[in-house]
Amino acid sequence: QVQLVESGGDLVQPGGSLRLSCVASGSFVGLKDMGWYRQAPESQRELVATISTGGLTNYRDSVKGRFTISRDNTKNAVYLQMDSLRSEDTAVYYCNMRLVTLGGSGDYWGKGTLVTVSS
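RESULT FIELD:
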């Protein structure tokens, strides 16, 4: 089985910073694209940022210049550095990884970590 575990969510004041981490464990043989999504109360889950196997990144417009996604394949991990946080960034953040298992490739999700931006 494969498990993704996020960490780093917290209560932070507007303008502050947080770093989210997500580590994969279990039975897989390869890592492909990774990403972060978020879901605010009474809203749909939305893409925040993605990073390809080659390190190409993609961000939603509202976080460009404030958030940075990175990965460490040696640790089976993906990170999201969030700076200049705003109240509208408040959400549960989920990591997503496309992993290669003996049965093929598949998308896996963590259970989420809560980020609250409030004074």
